[in-house]
Amino acid sequence: QVRLVESGGGSVQSGGSLKLSCAASGYTSFRYSMAWFRQVPGKEREGVAAIDSHGNPSYADSVKGRFTISRDNAKETVYLQMDSLKPEDTAIYYCAGGKGPVITGLRLDDYDYWGQGNQVTVSS
Hints:
Largest sheet: 7 strands, mixed
Shape: globular
Strand content: over 45%
Oligomer: single chain
Number of helices: 0
Helix content: under 10%
Number of strands: 11
Structural class: mainly beta
């Protein structure tokens, strides 16, 4: 059974940085696309960044140039480095596991597995 566990969230002032980690377990082979989503209460969960099995990234326009997604396949871990954070980045961030090795999109139904969520708060 696949399990995704996020860590690294917290509170930071505007302009600061945080790094999220997502440790995966249960994959027979860690050759799946992975992604980060975020959700604010009362709003739909939105895709932030995705990475294919070879490490090629894709980003939502709202975070391009500020966030960096990466992965360490040997450690079965995916990261999200968040720089130049803004108050509007405040949300619960979720790690997601894809259906195959390529990025098919940043829609909820592109992903089969989800972490428990990790709060990120950016104050002005």
